[in-house]
Design a protein that fits this description.
Layout (H helix, E strand, L loop, with lengths): L14 E5 L1 H11 L1 H17 L10 E4 L4 E8 L3 E9 L13 E7 L5 E6 L1 H19 L6 E5 L5 H12 L3 E5 L3 H11 L5 E4 L3 H4 L5 E4 L6 E5 L9 E4 L8 E3 L1 H5 L2 E4 L2 H7 L12 E2 H5 L13 E4 L4 H15 L6 E4 L10 H7 L8
Parallel strand pairs: 1-6, 7-8, 7-10, 8-9, 10-12, 11-13, 12-16, 14-15, 14-16
Antiparallel strand pairs: 1-17, 2-3, 3-4, 4-5, 5-6
Length: about 350
């Protein structure tokens, strides 16, 4: 007979909750997409209000000629989180997603992970929720019309978040690929919007109080020129997310009040990479806590230079974690080695040898 003891069953600590794409979609439909967007706005805003508690660093990026792969970490001292995300504009031409992502939450006190989740779908939701949160504080009061320049994977989420949180009723849509606009119109046709497909960006921004730019090409681009932007609008520039990629002419920045998430990251990746290092910006957490003003006049141009920051992903993962108990929309994965004797990892391996315990 063998002297080896049978390998014990994995402990509860060995398992972490995993939210697959299928379960994320179940969760979204169970909650309702617009309700979930509004909930995410609340979670993100709550975390922005406690901004000083968080570890903050520009995301760690590995750039190539065709795209970028990034890690986005942060911690509030009790929970640690990170997101893996890529950005590959060429993927659309190959029938692939431009952006894919997954994320993780872990306990700071033990280092043990507690949640692993898809974040391709969740990133679209959190990006839209962040845009709506910002617009609620910066857009002209009574805004009802939004121009959406770039009608890719983000467009429907942006539209639904802006309607739920800010009251947007009319969408003026433009994309250099008319098929993308047709797709967006088809997806939103029964959602209660007034939808106006446009042939040019200039046409799209006519009469819009909010202008959202969300294009994918990894290059310096001028989606909006200075003469296209009148006074009193809010610009939601969310397409920039890496060095060498912009959407706005620098003269627009020069006459706008610019708001950002985390200044060191935005100076590397955002529209303000075109500007001097001392170009003034306001971080959104300062507006939310009353430390700095937001919109101060009807003629002011406010510009959100949004590149996406790790705290927003942390908020989204925290929200998903908090909702799972009520739904069961997750699996448990045995991905942490947790031996019965913490000092005997090798013994755990030996007790799992095939045939162990048999004569």
């Amino acid at each position: 007979m063998s002297d080896f003891r049978p390998a014990p069953a994995p402990s509860d600590l060995a398992f972490i909750r995993f939210v697959s794409v299928a379960n994320m979609m179940k969760l979204i439909h169970r909650i309702g997409v617009e309700t979930m967007l509004a909930d995410l706005v609340r979670y993100i805003e709550d975390d922005f209000r406690r901004w000083p508690l968080f570890d903050k660093t520009p995301r760690v990026a590995s750039h190539s000629a065709v795209g970028v792969i990034e890690l986005m970490p942060t911690s509030d001292g009790e929970v640690y989180g990170f997101k893996y995300v890529n950005g590959h504009p060429k993927n659309t031409r190959e029938g692939l997603q431009t952006v894919t992502a997954f994320g993780l939450l872990a306990r700071v006190d033990t280092g043990y992970p507690v949640l692993l989740s898809e974040m391709t779908m969740l990133t679209a939701l959190r990006t839209a929720a962040t845009s709506a949160m910002v617009a609620r504080h910066l857009a002209p009061k009574g805004s009802r019309t939004m121009a959406m320049i770039g009608n890719g994977a983000q467009s429907e989420f942006q539209a639904l978040a802006m309607r739920k949180v800010c009251g947007i009723e009319e969408l003026r849509l433009y994309d250099i690929d008319a098929r993308a606009t047709e797709k967006t119109v088809a997806n939103l046709r029964d959602r209660g919007f007034v939808l106006t497909p446009c042939k040019t960006a200039e046409q799209a921004i006519e009469g819009a109080q909010i202008v959202t730019t969300c294009t994918a090409d990894k290059q310096y681009a001028t989606i909006l020129t200075d003469n296209m932007v009148g006074s009193g609008v809010h610009i939601n520039a969310i397409g920039g997310d890496c060095p060498g990629k912009t959407e706005l002419h620098r003269d627009i920045l020069a006459r706008s009040d610019v708001f950002v998430e985390y200044t060191p990251q935005t100076r590397i990746e955002g529209e303000i990479q075109q500007m001097p290092d001392d170009f003034p910006v306001t971080e959104m957490w300062q507006v939310l806590t009353g430390a700095a003003p937001g919109r101060t006049s009807d003629r002011q141009i406010t510009l959100f230079d949004g590149v996406g920051f790790a705290i927003e992903d942390f908020s989204a993962l925290r929200y998903v974690r908090d909702r799972l108990d009520d739904t069961g929309d997750y699996e448990c994965l045995d991905i942490i080695a947790d031996p019965d004797d913490a000092r005997d990892l090798f013994g755990m391996l030996e007790r799992a040898r095939p045939g162990n315990g048999k004569s």
